[in-house]
Amino acid sequence: MKSVVIFDRYNGVDLKPAEMFNDYVKLTAESIQSFFLTNSELNKCTCPGCGSQQVSTTFEKFGLKYNECENCGTLYISPRPADNDIVRYYRESPARILWRERLTRSTDKTRKNKIVNPRFAWIEDSTLEYLDNQKHYVDINTDQEVYIEAIEKSQVFDRKTLINPFLQINSEKKDLSIVDKGLDSIELEGDVDVVSLFEVCDHTSDINLLFQKVSQMLQPGGICFITSILASGFDFQVLWDKSENLFAPDRLNVFSVKGFRNLFTRHNFECLEFSTPGILDVENVKATAGRNPDVTLPKFVQNMIVDGDDSVRQAFQEFLQTNLLSSYARIVIRKNG
Ligand SMILES: [Zn+2]
To answer: What is the distance between the alpha carbons of residues 215 and 192, in angstroms, rounded to a whole number?
Structure first.
């Protein structure tokens, strides 16, 4: 199995300007209250990674309960809203409107250059590496508009389909079929070569339905690209409930490496690549500790990350990438024939 390390430089503030991000978090707390806590039904679930019911620790964030799976370390919200309530939240909540209209637009260029374009280069190169005849590409439930343009531009596939009730996408875009429906009504059967899930495992309530649908639409040997945040990554392990970007529904599930592997095996997928090329773990810990007086870092982490040299921080981030210990994952899985 492949594992890739990437050395790139940008920082979190390039993607999430502090003041606007604070507004987003504040609005998220209010939107969760009005969309999920007062107006929708919440249902209990087991670990989305391994299916275990055993929980080792819990904490609350904005009125919803995070559970840490005792078996695989996946962090997940339960009880949780259903997928159609989450779609409504992404389309209509003031928090997500702010995200679309202010936050992502002001950071569009950095996002395109530093995240989206490299991801498409990865998808295209890996597709050509793993498949001989790639015709049909399907992207599912992306909540970021910036991807749509990149999908439109991609020259590697003959046919491209967007399954997406989350965004209101202009249906006149050429070369794209747009399916504006929830996953439960999708009936694609075995004619798809490549699927992408950009941070989709993170905000999907019924994870087993998602993987059943991906499996059903892919032909045997077809591949699926996943990007996601990991609970087993360094910054989440250190900051835990004080992680600033940990809240529903963007982070309804935060899988561990073990949790993801369990999910793939359960749905009969083989893992071709599992990399954690994140570059923000160390910076996130340093910045959060600087802002939040309630964060107490272990002495070693404090010495190395807050008081240490840049070169040590950089070397430690590279160590995290190499050993699958960063909190950003990129994964390729293949449907077994
Ligand atoms: Zn688990």
So the answer is: 10
Q: Which CATH architecture has domain 12-277+330-335?
A: 3-Layer(aba) Sandwich (3.40)
Rounded distance from Cα 259 to ligand 1 centre (Å): 5
Measured in Å, residue 76 CA sits from the centre of ligand 1 at 9
Query: Which residues sit opposite 176 in a β-bridge?
Result: 160
Distance from the alpha carbon of residue 72 to the mean position of ligand 1, in angstroms: 4
CB atoms within 10 A of CB 284: 23
**Segments making up each domain of the chain, as ranges:** 12-277+330-335
Q: Which residue has the tokens 């945040």?
A: 229
Quote the ligand 1 centre to 43 CA distance (angstroms). Answer: 18
Tens of pLDDT, residue by residue, the chain (337 residues): 887 766 555 555 566 777 888 899 999 999 999 999 997 899 999 999 999 999 999 999 999 999 999 999 999 999 999 999 999 999 999 999 998 888 877 778 888 888 888 899 999 999 999 999 889 999 999 988 888 888 988 889 999 999 999 988 876 766 788 888 888 888 888 899 999 999 999 999 999 999 999 999 999 999 999 999 999 999 999 999 999 989 999 999 999 999 999 999 999 999 999 999 998 999 999 999 999 999 999 999 999 999 989 999 999 999 999 999 999 999 999 999 8
